Amino acid sequence: MKQTPAANRPVTMEDVAREAGVSRALVSLVMRDSPKVSPGKRAAVLETADALGYSPNRLASRLASHRTKTLGVLFLDLHNPVFADIYDGIAEGIEGSGNQMMVAVGSADPRTELEAVRSFVDLRADGVLLAGYTGSEGDLASALRGTPAVVITRELDADGVDSVLTDDFQSGVLAVEHLHELGHRRIAHVDISDWLPYTARREGYLHAMEQFGLEPMLVHSDMTERGSREVMENFLATGTPLPTAIFTHNDLTAMGVMEALHAHGLAVPDDVAIIGCDNIEVAASPLIGLTSIDQHARELGRSAAEVMLDRIAQPGGPAITRKLEPALMVRNSTAGSTKQ
Amino acid sequence: MKQTPAANRPVTMEDVAREAGVSRALVSLVMRDSPKVSPGKRAAVLETADALGYSPNRLASRLASHRTKTLGVLFLDLHNPVFADIYDGIAEGIEGSGNQMMVAVGSADPRTELEAVRSFVDLRADGVLLAGYTGSEGDLASALRGTPAVVITRELDADGVDSVLTDDFQSGVLAVEHLHELGHRRIAHVDISDWLPYTARREGYLHAMEQFGLEPMLVHSDMTERGSREVMENFLATGTPLPTAIFTHNDLTAMGVMEALHAHGLAVPDDVAIIGCDNIEVAASPLIGLTSIDQHARELGRSAAEVMLDRIAQPGGPAITRKLEPALMVRNSTAGSTKQ
DNA sequence: CACTGACTTTAGAGCGCTCTAATAACATTC
DNA sequence: GAATGTTATTAGAGCGCTCTAAAGTCAGTG
Fold first, then answer.
1. Which listed residue, of A61, A70, B241, B336, carries a Cα 20 to 30 Å from A7's Cα?
2. What mean pLDDT is reported for chain B?
């Protein structure tokens, strides 16, 4: 297809300026809603811009202005609704600040995560929020190259990286305490694969078990519903004596475990009590009635956004860690399962 | 491991070039993995780039190259897991193509949606995928300004906008046929608010009801679990004679309806049979056992990505519509609910 | 040893915008 | 009506990169 260069070329500010009989700088001012443009010229510029179908090139404007007003946000996994809650929190937190989000999904793969972070940095995001990150602090710091970051749901010890999370250790403790109080003594924990840096819930569990003088019982799974269902089915197939209660890493794994129990004709909470973590909406539904530990996901997102905006407004200073207290939400999956 | 020099001004290609004793153009070639750079210079450039903590400015490179290799992807709502499936499909579809995703969430608000689309266009995304869009075709076309787009889950009649969807009308028909076959005659439909342009499922329902000579029964809700729960509770409170079966717009609304029934001591499927739509994982779980209509969300995403890549490779040509056949997935919420 | 041609490297003109500083235009004041 | 502000407008120098075309290299040829 041969056409004159001018024919198919997208409309630029220059074109609008020429057509409207003003300078490019004036058009720029109009596009940025500058108050120092006379009403007359403003109207004229807007009109011809519209007539020519002008669409500002934000790449160019960002390059020239050294300002992007954009936050890169990385999510661990879209399948876990807890991240939808975090998203809502972030959206709430940046509302009115004039910032935009740039979203990516890491899929619990450190390489994908780092690539996403690098992409944010290369596109000069003003800051990066990581709603779940499974890689190492060193890799993250080197990918960030000084861009401020806030890690959500995890505590990270790296320069210029703030953390906003719920006290996961305490969640583990709460779960065990709750089950212990109901009379359970054989309490198992289904965690996620050990290479992932999300170990605090397990540690809290182990700590509390030890405090109570109970024998811990660990089963390794992954973060998904399906995965933990399979893991649990394999476990049941081994014929190992059953625990009377299970604390799982999160609600999705709890559901998988419940499915496996269900398939084996075991009743919850009568045969086995279950307690999850995250307090996601579907699990909280009366249809499932899963007892869970609320980690205040939405608040986490809101708070992380707040920390980031502060950090951008006032760079430097020591890394901040904000830790929320988890909250036990008792529902059918443990209620009335007294074992004493 | 490398420490970024605490320079006020970020490191540019120019700096690397000077330090390495080569031209900026050479550095550019190295950064783009050009094969026409001698191994010696390549190594030297990479080394000093690393030493200086150089991070390429993708804004500048995109501006200069007129190429972004980026697809904007808009999601209707992160709370509905069907979009996580679509995401996976898109990721699969663009794998290996060298393209990146730029994600935004519309939250079923046409203004937010359009702003996101404009943002994609202004950042010169090569194409835009809309996984759910609630606005008008006119607004979309004008925001796109010629950028190719694919709408997923909806059929849109606009220039340069392709559509990839499941036959929603057919889904409505399938649902009614299934229920009718089980002997149900009083079949209600819970849809989503009427201003949303997602009416095909309802129309399919209405069509099938008419074919069977049955009286339709419509209840308006929204797209959420909570919303439909409330709507259903209000409905139950009115004392209107109950239908024996309900087809809901999607699985989330189905769950809300089930919760309301549950709260009123009504059994599913014995008192009321339920059938949803989308076939999301949690609803398919044995814990819920919701009969649903699979719309092949992941395949939708994959296919949309494919259409977009083709469109980018070969611009022009008439708008494409790809329509998949829905598939009925029978589970407990309707199974064995014979009303004959 | 000037002359290829294949391979490397570079100068320099953009990409489309913003920003600073200067200029123009127009009220005010004395 | 010259001096003084005030407010609008513009010229022009970047922003950090890519790209084209031209210029160097450096064998191998005849």
1. A61
2. 93
